[in-house]
Design brief:
By secondary structure, the chain is α/β, with parallel strands linked by helices. It has 18 helices and 17 strands. Strand 16, helix 15 and strand 17 form a beta-alpha-beta unit. The chain binds 2 iron/2 sulfur/6 carbonyl/1 water inorganic cluster (HC0) and iron/sulfur cluster. GO terms for molecular function: 2 iron, 2 sulfur cluster binding; 4 iron, 4 sulfur cluster binding; ferredoxin hydrogenase activity; iron ion binding; NADH dehydrogenase (ubiquinone) activity.
C-alpha cells in the first residue's frame, strides 16, 4: 500500500494506482478529456494535470502512478491556470459551432470549457478543411477533431482494424484515415465504435432524419417502422430516464405521436431468422461430410464487412440468411403489403437500429428482393431517433405505454436477446433442439454463451450429436478466433460474431455516455425481457407461424430463399 496526501487529505491506496484513480477513491474529481480507461492513457490533452510537491512541472494524473509520501494538489492556482490554458488551446483547434453540433449538450469539451468558466478565446483559430464524402454512413469532421487519439486507439486495440492514424506534422498534425486512403477504400467495418468513443462531435453517423420526415409528410407513402432488439434497452438514456421506465412500449407511443403508420418489432424477424438460419444449420449438420464448418452468423453487417475484407476466402461459410433487419424489410414489402392490399411501392420501410453499419446494409444493391426498391429504405440509429423525439417536442417522461401493431409486432424472448452477445446463438440452439427432437428444451439450457467475455465457447449435446459453438464480440477478439480457426487450433460447428463489444447492446449507434461502457447493463435488460416473455422460442411465435402458413410455406422454401436469403458475394 502507498500513503499519500491529496488536497491535504491523507489517503492509502494500492501500489501502482494512478493519481486519477487515487483521487477518485477519495472522492476528489480531476477532469479528463482524452483519457479512456485501459484504451487511451496517454495524457495528451493535459486537462488532468495536478501539482506534486517537489516536482517543477505539473504532471498528468491519468498516466502517472502514486508514490509513498506524495503530496498532490488538484486545484492550486497553477493547476487551474494550466488547465485553462490547455483547454483554450484545444478550443483554438475546434470549430466550436455548438448550436449546430450533434454532440451539443453531450460534449466533454463543452462541459470542461464551461466548468472552467472559459467565456472567450484568446487564440486565433486555425481549422483544417473537411473533404469528407457526406453520403458515407460514417462522417468525420476534421474541424471538430481535438486529436485526443481515442478513435485511433479504439479502432486499433478493440477492433484491430487501424482505420485511423495521425496525419501531418507540426501544427498541421491531425487524425485521418490511415495510410493516406479515402474512407471508402479502407477496411472500415462501420461498427461506429470510434463515434461512441469520441468525446466531441468529430465523428458521427450520417443523419437521415430528414428522409424520414419527408416520407411521413408524403400522403402516398405508408410508413412501416421496425424497432431493433437493442434499441429498447438504450433509447431512454439520452433523456435520463430510468431503464425500467424507458420501455419499448413507450418508444412505440413516441413513434405513434410522430406519425408512423405501422410500428413493428424486429424481434419478429429475429424469430424468422432463427427459423431460416437454424434450418440451414441443421441441413449442414445432416450433410456434414460435404460441408465446411463452422457456419458463421451473418446478421451483423459490421462483421460481414470484416469477413469480406479480412477473410475473403471464408465468405462462403457465412449463413446465407439475411439479417433480421433485411428479412423484415423484404416481408414488409411483400407479405405485409399483401395483407394491407396495397402496392408494395407505397410502403416506406424504416428501421431503428443501434447500428451505423445497418445504414450500409440496407443500401447493398441486392437487398431489394421484394421488388419495390430497397427492402429497407432508411435506417435511423438510436441516437437519431432520440433527436427526432426531441425535435417533435415529445416529453418522454409523459409517455404512456402502447402496443406494437400486429401481426409483425410479435417477438419472442429468443428474438429480444439477439441484441446481446451470444443471444443469436442461444436463440438458435433453443429452436434447433426443438427441430431435432420435437421437444422444447428448458429455455435457459444454453445460457453458457451469455456474458461479456470477448470469446466464449460451449459444447452441447443435441439428440446424440455433439455441437461445439463459439461466440465472439469486438473485432480484435474476432480476429483472434478467426486465426485460431484458420490454424486448426480450434474446431466449431457454429459461430456467432458481433462486431461491437457486447453485441448490438454496445452498438455504434447507441446513446453516448462519455467514458462509461453501457453494454453490460443493456444486455441485462434484454435478458430480463426474455425471462418475462410468455414466448421464449422463435418457433412458437404465432405471427411467424402464420407468415409461413399463409405466405412463405416453410423455412428454406423457394419464396423464403428469394426473400430471406442472400449471396454475400453480390
Ligand atoms: Fe442488432 Fe439484429 S440484433 S444485428 O445488433 O441479428 O443493429 O438490436 O436489429 O438485423 O434482430 C442491430 C440489434 C438488430 C438485425 C436483430 C440481428
Ligand atoms: Fe451493428 Fe450490432 Fe454489428 Fe455493432 S454488433 S455493427 S450494432 S449489428
Amino acid at each position: 500500500m502507498v500513503n499519500l496526501t491529496i488536497n491535504g487529505k491523507q489517503i492509502r491506496v494500492k501500489e501502482g494506482t494512478t493519481i486519477l484513480d487515487a483521487a477518485a477513491s477519495a472522492g476528489i474529481f480531476i477532469p479528463t478529456l482524452c483519457y479512456l480507461k485501459d484504451i487511451n492513457e496517454i495524457g495528451a490533452c493535459r486537462v488532468c494535470v495536478v501539482e506534486v510537491e517537489g516536482c517543477a512541472k505539473l504532471v498528468t494524473a491519468c498516466n502517472n502512478k502514486v508514490w509513498e509520501g506524495m503530496d498532490i494538489r488538484t486545484n492550486s492556482p497553477k493547476v487551474r491556470e494550466s488547465r485553462r490554458n490547455n483547454v483554450e488551446l484545444i478550443l483554438s483547434q475546434h470549430d466550436c459551432q455548438c448550436a449546430t453540433c450533434v454532440r451539443s449538450g453531450n460534449c466533454s469539451l463543452q462541459t470542461i470549457a464551461n466548468d472552467l468558466g472559459i467565456l472567450e478565446l484568446p487564440f486565433e483559430k486555425k481549422l483544417p478543411k473537411s473533404n469528407w464524402p457526406m453520403d458515407f454512413p460514417l462522417i468525420r469532421d476534421a474541424k471538430k477533431c481535438i486529436k485526443c487519439m481515442r478513435c485511433v486507439q479504439v479502432c486499433d486495440k478493440i477492433q484491430g482494424l487501424n482505420i485511423w492514424d495521425v496525419a501531418g506534422t507540426g501544427s498541421r498534425t491531425t487524425v485521418d484515415v490511415s495510410r493516406n486512403r479515402k474512407i471508402q477504400e479502407s477496411d472500415c467495418a462501420l461498427c461506429g465504435q470510434c463515434i461512441t468513443h469520441c468525446p466531441v462531435g468529430a465523428l458521427r453517423e450520417r443523419d437521415d432524419v430528414q428522409k424520414v420526415l419527408d416520407a411521413l409528410a408524403d400522403p402516398e407513402k405508408i410508413t412501416v417502422v421496425q424497432v431493433a432488439p437493442a434499441v429498447r434497452a438504450a433509447w431512454g438514456e439520452a433523456f435520463g430516464l430510468p431503464r425500467k421506465f424507458a420501455t419499448v412500449k413507450r418508444l412505440v407511443s413516441a413513434l405513434r405521436q410522430i406519425g408512423f403508420n405501422y410500428i413493428f418489432d424486429t424481434n419478429f424477424s429475429a424469430d424468422l431468422t432463427i427459423m431460416e438460419e437454424g434450418s440451414e444449420f441443421l441441413e449442414k449438420v445432416k450433410n456434414k461430410e460435404n460441408e465446411t464448418f463452422p457456419m458463421f452468423t451473418s446478421c451483423c453487417p459490421g462483421w460481414v464487412r470484416f469477413m469480406k475484407s479480412q477473410y475473403p476466402g471464408m465468405v462462403d461459410q457465412l449463413s446465407s440468411a439475411k439479417s433480421p433487419q433485411q428479412m423484415f424489410g423484404a416481408v414488409a414489402k411483400s407479405y405485409y403489403a399483401k395483407l394491407l392490399d396495397v402496392d408494395p411501392s407505397r410502403i416506406y420501410s424504416i428501421s431503428i437500429m443501434p447500428c451505423v453499419a445497418k445504414k450500409h446494409e440496407c443500401a447493398i444493391p441486392v437487398m431489394n428482393d421484394a421488388g419495390a426498391g430497397p427492402d429497407v429504405d432508411v435506417v435511423l440509429t438510436t441516437r437519431e431517433v432520440d433527436r427526432l423525439i426531441r425535435a417533435e417536442h415529445i416529453i418522454p417522461s409523459d409517455l404512456e405505454e402502447e402496443e406494437f401493431d400486429m401481426p409483425l409486432g410479435t417477438g419472442s424472448g429468443a428474438g429480444v436477446i439477439f441484441g446481446a452477445t451470444g443471444g443469436v446463438m442461444e436463440a438458435a440452439l433453443r429452436s434447433a433442439y426443438y427441430l431435432v427432437t420435437g421437444r422444447n428444451p428448458d429455455p435457459d439450457s444454453f445460457s453458457k454463451v451469455r456474458g461479456m467475455d470477448g470469446w466464449k465457447e460451449a459444447e452441447f449435446n443435441l439428440a446424440g450429436q455433439n455441437l461445439k459453438v463459439a461466440v465472439a464480440s469486438g473485432l480484435s477478439n474476432t480476429r483472434k478466433l478467426m486465426e485460431a480457426i484458420r490454424k486448426g487450433e480450434v474446431q466449431y460447428h457454429f459461430v456467432e460474431i458481433m462486431a461491437c463489444p457486447g453485441g448490438c447492446a454496445g452498438g455504434g449507434g447507441q446513446p453516448i455516455k462519455d467514458g462509461e461502457e453501457q453494454a453490460e447493463a443493456r444486455c441485462e435488460v434484454l435478458y430480463g425481457l426474455d425471462k418475462v416473455n410468455n414466448l421464449r422460442f422463435s418457433h412458437e411465435n404465432p405471427s411467424v407461424q402464420k407468415c409461413y402458413q399463409d405466405y412463405l410455406e416453410a423455412p428454406l422454401s423457394h419464396l423464403s430463399h428469394k426473400l430471406l436469403h442472400t449471396d454475400h458475394h453480390a
